[in-house]
Amino acid sequence: MSIQNNLRSISELYKTDKLEHGYIEIYDSYFKDLRNKELKVLEIGVADGKSLLTWSDYFKNSTIIGIDIHKIDIKEKKLDRKNIKVHQGSQSDEKFIKEIINIYGEFDIIIDDGSHLSKDVKKSFHLLFPYLAKNGLYAVEDMQTSYNHFFGGNPFDLKYSNSHMNFFKHLTDRLNYQEIANPFYIFNKYDSLITNISFYHNLVFVRKGTNDILSKEVLNHSYEDMKFKEKSSRTGKSLKYYFKYKIFYKVYTYLFMIFNLIKRILLLRF
User: Fold this and answer.
1) Is the Cα torsion angle 149, 151, 152, 155 positive or negative in sign?
2) Structure confidence at residue 4 (pLDDT)
3) Half-sphere exposure of 211 (CA within 13 A, CB side)
4) pLDDT of 188-221, one tens digit each?
């Protein structure tokens, strides 16, 4: 690839704000092996159109789809290209998003550079992630708004706020859902579907894929059941290990669960 044709040079040509945010090198590390493929790239938020023009040049064999809540003048923004499609609608409008999905099907890359409101970021992820292709990438820009109460974030309660940063932090538990030693664990819709989550300065990447690696420590979310199975099958002493793991260990697990439930109630953590 010539230096004049790399992502940074294309970004400098169109003066996209992704440069000043420091995203370009990060995007390049994810996209450089994909740029010659035939992809469907969806970006939420068109604004001045410079980002779509950048992706149009970079992913020459791909279809670049932009959505924006405001009406975009295609000719004025010079977006009247064969591989660029622009649609007007809200990123959190379920009906509109379904219309986009009906037109294009699955996407290989989704970039959320839209309203940056916590409620919109989370709603868009819930609506669009099911239609991200296997091994597809979902990026969310400007995560700093999670720390701003004017965007639905909360700078005064970083750990327990309902911000989109906390949403993605909690999503990391989906990577290790098989390891959660909670016999009452309730399956989450993102379990087994995420293979990687990466956090950068104001930027998050989520990779979709098959994550079904079984735990070597717990069986059906029970450490006690796994240890009982291991010990009894190896020694043949089922009764001894039944009392140890199926009774004593389980009693401890239930007491620990009740303690944490009471703590959550007292601290109003739901």
Assistant:
1) negative
2) 58
3) 22
4) 999 999 999 999 999 999 999 999 999 999 999 9
- Is the distance from CB of 66 to CB of 107 less than 8 angstroms? no
> The dihedral of CA 1, 42, 142, 81: what is its sign?
positive
C-alpha span between 244 and 229 (Å, rounded): 12
Domains in the chain: boundaries: 3-208, 223-266
Check: CB of residue 7 under 8 Å from CB of residue 24.
yes
Instruction: Record the tokens describing residue 249, joined without a space.
Output: 């260990």
Tokens linked to 10: 């294309």
Pick the closest to residue 232 from 245, 216, 219 (CA basis): 245
The residue annotated as part of the active site, out of 21, 70, 87, 116, is: 116
Other CB atoms closer than 10 Å to residue 145's CB: what's the count?
A: 21
Instruction: Please give, one letter per residue, the 3-state secondary structure of 125-148.
Output: HHHHHHHEEEEEEEEEECHHHHHC
What pTM value is reported for the model? Answer: 0.93
User: What φ, ψ does residue 105 adopt, rounded to 5°?
Assistant: 75, -140
Q: Once rounded to an integer, what is the mean pLDDT over residues 55-82?
A: 97
Q: Which two tokens stand for residue 45?
A: 């938020």
Report the side by side order of strands in the sheet with 194-200: 84-88, 63-68, 40-44, 107-112, 132-141, 203-208, 194-200
Predicted confidence (pLDDT) at residue 3 exceeds the cutoff of 50: no
Residue 139 burial (10 A CB sphere; 0-12, 13-18, 19+) = buried
- Residue 116 annotated to the active site: yes
* SS3 of residue 218 by DSSP: coil
Record: fold of 3-208:
Rossmann fold (3.40.50)
